[in-house]
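Q: Hi! Curious about what DNA-3-methyladenine glycosylase looks like structurally. Here's the sequence.
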Amino acid sequence: MMNFQKIRARAAKRKGGEAVLASLLGPMPDNAAVADITDDRILSTMAERVFAAGFVWRVIEQKWPGFEQAFLGFEPKRLLFQPDDFWHDLTADERIVRNPQKIKSVRENAAFVELVSKEHGGFGRFLADWPEDDQVGLMAYLAKHGSRLGGNTGQYFLRWLEWDAFIVSGDMAAALRDAGLDIAEHPTSKRDLDKIQNQINAWAADTGLPRRNISRILAMSIGENHSPEALREYMGE
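A: Let's find out. The predicted structure is below.
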């Protein structure tokens, strides 16, 4: 495998120097702090990432105050108390994106969050206690037990909560392949995801960097060279 410092140097050169690259890495993630996130904010973030999948993120962000109103502040207990008519009426509610399948996922994820919260003293605590070197295992759990939380949606959900998550984007996967990792061009199998996890863990141990930073550096080291300004707008930072 290529030395990670070479990958970082290439990313820095593409972005205009080490200082610029460092400014694009974002704040340090804090898995322990995720324990303090309340269940309503967990469910809100889940729903936002589900609705943003395959959609223009900015549109979802602009409409989100309406989502918060329509979904009763994303309080799991309150949502689970609502009758079927409440959920049916949401499919005609102009405050939100009226996608029946994604609306249904909020109801299902409210039950998911409530169940895990009861078992662990809060869904945030459950996430904070999950080993940071086993994101792939956590992704599999979210995909199996949650609704529409598989693939990149689950990864972005963790990232938005400031859990130390890597994102297997096209550029990130291309950088790993370029560095010598034997994975598919579009890695989705457990075999490939385990290889990615192991390599990210190795680089995290060698460099002391959060896994999120390693992921971002990989993505910025290859592919279309987006400007720092475009990346900051995309990341909302």
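A: A fun detail: The radius of gyration is 19 Å.
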